[in-house]
Amino acid sequence: MTENLDENLDDLDALARELDRDHVFHSWSAQSQLSSLVVASGRGCRVWDHAGREYLDFSSQLVNVNIGHQHPAVVEAIREQAELLTTIAPSTVNLARGEAAKRIVGHAPPGFHKVFFTNGGADANENAIRMARLHTGRDKVLSTYRSYHGNTGAAVVATGDWRRIPNEFARGHVHFFGPYLYRSEFWATTPEEESERALHHLRRVIEAEGPSSIAAILLETVPGTAGIMLPPPGYLSGVRELCDRHGILLILDEVMAGFGRTGRWFAFDGYDVRPDLITFAKGVNSGYIPVGGVIISDPIAATFDDRVFPGGLTYSGHPLAMASIVATLDAMESEGIVDHARAIGDTEIGPALAELAEKHDVIGEVRGEGVFWAMELVADPATREPLPAAAMGRLKSALVARGLLPFVQDNRIHVVPPCVVTVEDVAEAMPIYDEVLSTALA
Question: What is the mean pLDDT of the chain?
Answer without folding.
Answer: 96
